[in-house]
């Protein structure tokens, strides 16, 4: 019954966005991985618009239905562990042939081993968390009969540079699904085959549950993090940029146009995928009081 409900929502997406069916997958099948495929010209803005459009339809689903999509990703990772390991072995062989630094080789090998061992359980734990969407996180009284309420809402389109940290990719996709956001992923070219194998596996899992629609809620793109951060054609569309680093997570937000730094060294968690909406709540008596501009100014100055 749950799958049928998800399929019904998927049909609404297909009717509203007829072009999504052909654009849902932005990755190549794992069996077709080669250097020529990896040199394909990316279309990040187009895929970003599609991802965001599909993400808005995630809001039509209940939290249980969004969890079902995330859990399908966990099951697919376990079922396709062999294909992902084969892609990782290809990247390791290529790195060894190219004389990659031993430290980088060690990171690649460790990350590849951790994907199947850690990612499915991490997704299942995330699916057991309370729903973060539309949740009231704070109520602040500012005057008699007047309160400020802070709610969690989706961000829109999030771009993540995961670098060599492949084990984070399934969790990023799961958090995007659970919080109703579109997602653009970019990583190191040293792990390109593994990244594409992961993306293909996850997109196929989402399409298998939802009728060939929600697999396009995320896209793997070949754009540098510097371009996402500084070039207006990207920064205008990306609402939050997350960069995974060795010692933490860098989070950047769009404020009045450019991408700027907001937060550094915060662990990967669902809170990174939600925004905060401030709502002014007034009683009937307070509404009469707040009709004057002076009263509005006083209340807003308390934010």
Automatic annotation (TrEMBL):
The protein's matches in SUPFAM superfamilies, at most eight in alphabetical order, are given as:
ALDH-like (SSF53720)
The residues that cross the membrane are: 155-178, 198-221
InterPro entries xref list:
Ald_DH/histidinol_DH, Ald_DH_N
Highest taxon listed in the record's lineage: Eukaryota
Disordered: region residues: 23-43
Q: Give an example GO molecular function.
A: glutamate-5-semialdehyde dehydrogenase activity
- Work out whether the entry's keyword set contains Membrane: yes
Keywords attached to this entry: Membrane, Transmembrane, Transmembrane helix
Keyword NADP on this protein? no
Q: What is this protein called?
A: Uncharacterized protein
Species of origin: Chrysotila carterae
Q: What is the lineage of its organism?
A: Eukaryota, Haptista, Haptophyta, Prymnesiophyceae, Isochrysidales
């Amino acid at each position: 019954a749950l799958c049928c409900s998800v399929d019904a929502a998927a049909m609404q997406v297909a009717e509203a966005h007829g072009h999504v069916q052909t654009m849902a997958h932005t990755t190549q099948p794992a069996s077709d991985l080669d250097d020529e495929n990896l040199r394909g010209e990316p279309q990040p803005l187009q895929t970003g618009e599609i991802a965001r459009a599909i993400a808005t339809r995630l809001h039509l689903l209940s939290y249980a239905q969004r969890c079902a999509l995330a859990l399908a990703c966990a099951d697919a990772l376990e079922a396709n562990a062999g294909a992902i390991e084969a892609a990782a072995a290809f990247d390791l062989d290529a790195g060894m042939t190219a004389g990659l630094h031993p430290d980088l080789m060690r990171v690649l090998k460790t990350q590849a081993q951790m994907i199947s061992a850690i990612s499915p359980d991490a997704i299942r734990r995330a699916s057991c968390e309370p729903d973060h969407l539309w949740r009231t996180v704070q109520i602040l009284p500012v005057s008699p009969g007047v309160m400020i309420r802070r709610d969690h809402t989706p961000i829109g389109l999030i771009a993540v540079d995961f670098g060599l940290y492949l084990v984070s990719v399934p969790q990023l996709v799961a958090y995007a699904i659970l919080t109703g956001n579109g997602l653009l992923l970019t990583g190191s070219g040293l792990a390109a085959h593994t990244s594409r194998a992961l993306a293909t596996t996850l997109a196929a899992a989402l399409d298998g549950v939802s009728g060939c629609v929600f697999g396009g809620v995320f896209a793997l793109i070949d754009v540098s993090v510097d371009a996402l951060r500084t070039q207006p054609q990207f920064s205008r569309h990306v609402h939050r940029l997350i960069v995974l680093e060795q010692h933490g997570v860098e989070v950047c937000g769009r404020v009045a146009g450019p991408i700027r730094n907001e937060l550094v060294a915060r662990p990967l968690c669902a809170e990174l995928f939600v925004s905060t909406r401030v709502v002014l709540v007034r009683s009937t008596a307070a509404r009469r009081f707040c009709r004057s501009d002076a009263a509005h100014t006083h209340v807003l100055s308390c934010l």
